[in-house]
Design a protein that fits this description.
- The structure holds 2 protein chains of 2 kinds.
- In chain A, strand 2 and strand 3 form a beta hairpin.
- Chain A starts with 15 loop residues before the first strand and ends in a 9-residue tail after the last helix.
- The relative contact order of chain A is 0.19.
- Chain A contains 13 helices and 8 strands.
- Chain A is an alpha+beta fold.
- In chain A, helix 4 packs antiparallel against helix 5, helix 4 packs antiparallel against helix 10 and helix 5 packs antiparallel against helix 6.
- The structure holds iron/sulfur cluster (SF4).
- Iron/sulfur cluster sits at the interface of chains B and A.
- Iron/sulfur cluster (SF4) sits at the interface of chains B and A.
Chain lengths: 378, 148
């Protein structure tokens, strides 16, 4: 077994370079990747981001905290709810606000629905890059069920963040009708995903394309601080949800697979979807009664507060200080930042045609990651 | 109707350019064109990634500083007649990235898209609804088909 891939050991110049980007069909988002190729085998890969930099942290500086929370939603169109959730948690931690039980349950339900939609999008994107349009279309179709549920609860198909400081928005209350819809939606979803995964795993052509491709050695994954499902697909049994107090009431398994390739990554998403469905079912069954928001809180100044949560792609970090109800020194770190290094390593040693697949296997989201900028000394 | 328009009518190619929004609009547009639920392909509208093949350019996002040049290049590469649709509030007016000011204003945003290339149709929403994209596209199609 390979322990570590060491790119280009002799420091020789690799002459053939294949570059893609910044606008490229296989990747929706603008980024630039350069593959250095010898005999059609990738020897080195380099991903450059920075085209998307909008400076959300900088716009957040000095905004009232409620406004800043709403702004964090626009960091990423895929895990929009998670960013709001984490930003609100940061503020709540600093202001010592206890939210009602029911609000927490609704947040968890939204969080898990978001994980479902993100994982299904990943599968659809993965299948498209594999060149299997039929599977991809099928998953887009399955995903619509989740989108409808998100639309029903949050009021929008994409930016549906539910959290506000002290609870959830009044519109996101779950009444009997909505609970029923969620239940029937989950049943349909589960049935569809089971059918899909049976079909997917028994397809010899697809399997031959994904087995052993994009191998990321566990030792290296550890070194690169890979997070989320990409880490779990390398055999590490680590999920921050087990340590989050928000998930204390729920019972779920952490999935980990140890083949470390594209297949493990794809299966990981399917298996995690079932766990998410399980969590939502529990939350709906035991939904506590009571208010959904606590509005009796006071604003005071506090020093830097940090908060970590597990979002669909890994661990997301938010931190800011509060001064006169305004946000100061906001820092946001998204999981894809760590996973970019993993994408580069996973591509090494593979055929050039699988290069894009190796990048997609780590669930890239460059939009949310584009927030670092270089400080040049004047 | 010329032969060219006649055949163009049967294969409208849409190209999507993404200029630094939050990803939400793009997913919805790809969803609109490809996914089995809305499926614009049944009206003979196809997604392409080659500017020389495209008839309609759909732009999302507020156009960040680094994205301005590529956008102009892509626009110039599309053969005439061409249409531009700006989709999402980011593309229409810069969205949250341009209009919310904290203490330090954001300087990266070059948009809205109108400042850079001429826009034929504007589709509002954050994120845009797939149905609206379809409606926006249909409303400007006559300009494309009657242009020669
Ligand atoms: S309009 Fe809204 S959803 Fe669309 S790219 Fe901008 S912030 Fe994202």
């Amino acid at each position: 077994m390979i322990e570590e891939k060491i790119p280009n050991p002799n420091g020789e110049l690799i002459e053939t370079e294949i570059s893609m980007g910044t606008v490229h069909p296989a990747a929706l988002e603008p980024y630039r990747v350069r593959f250095f190729v010898e005999d059609e085998i990738i020897q080195e890969a380099e991903i450059t981001i920075g085209v998307n930099h909008r400076g959300v942290e900088r716009i957040m500086e000095g905004l009232p905290v409620e406004k800043a929370n709403a702004l964090t939603e626009k960091i990423c169109g895929i895990c929009s709810n998670s960013h709001t959730w984490n930003s609100v948690l940061t503020a709540e931690k600093g202001l010592n606000i206890d939210i009602p039980e029911r609000a927490n349950y609704i947040r968890v339900i939204m969080g898990e629905l978001e994980r479902l939609h993100s994982h299904l999008l990943y599968l659809a994107h993965g299948c498209e890059v594999l060149g299997h349009e039929t599977f991809s279309m099928r998953i887009f179709y399955i995903r619509e069920t989740v989108m409808d549920l998100l639309h029903m609860i949050g009021g929008n198909r994409v930016q549906y963040g539910v959290s506000i400081i002290g609870g959830v928005r009044p519109r996101c209350e779950l009444n009997e009708m909505r609970i029923q819809k969620v239940e029937s939606g989950l049943d349909e979803l589960e049935k569809n995903i089971v059918n899909f995964s049976e079909r997917f795993t028994s397809d010899p052509i697809v399997n031959s394309r994904i087995e052993g491709v994009g191998y990321l050695p566990p030792k290296q994954a550890r070194k690169l601080a890979v997070t989320g499902p990409s880490l779990r697909a390398c055999g590490f049994n680590y999920d921050l949800r087990t340590e989050m107090p928000q998930y204390d009431d729920f019972d779920f398994n952490i999935i980990s697979l140890d083949t470390c390739d594209v297949k493990a990554n794809l299966l990981m998403r399917v298996l995690e979807s079932f766990e998410s469905i399980k969590i939502i079912r529990q939350a709906i069954k035991n939904l506590p009664k009571g208010p959904i928001a606590d509005r009796n809180w006071e604003m005071f100044d506090c020093d830097f507060i940090k908060s970590y949560i597990e979002v669909p792609r890994g661990i997301c970090y938010h931190s800011f200080a509060l001064e006169d109800g305004r946000v100061r020194g906001s820092v946001i770190r998204t999981p894809s930042m760590a996973n970019i290094a993993a994408m580069q390593y996973a591509a090494i040693g593979n055929h050039i045609t699988d290069g894009q697949l190796c990048i997609v296997q780590c669930d890239p989201c460059f939009t949310c990651t584009d927030r670092a900028f270089e400080i040049i000394e004047l | 109707m010329s032969l060219k328009s006649y055949s163009r009518q049967r294969a409208i190619h849409v190209m999507l350019v993404y200029t630094g929004g939050c990803n939400g609009c793009d997913i919805e547009i790809v969803n609109a064109v490809l996914s089995p639920k809305i499926d614009i392909e049944q009206y003979k509208v196809f997604l392409t990634w080659n500017p020389r093949e495209a008839d309609v350019l759909v732009v999302t996002g507020p156009v960040t500083y680094h994205n301005k040049e590529p956008l102009l290049k892509i626009y110039n590469d599309i053969p005439d007649p061409k249409l531009v649709i700006a989709a999402g509030s980011c593309a229409l007016m810069g969205g949250v990235y341009k209009n919310i000011y904290g203490d330090i204003p954001s300087e990266e945003i070059e948009g809205p898209v109108e400042n850079i290339i001429p826009v034929d149709a504007k589709v509002p929403g954050c994120a845009v609804r797939p149905q609206d994209i379809l409606a926006g596209l249909i409303s400007v199609l006559p300009n494309l088909l009657n242009s020669d």
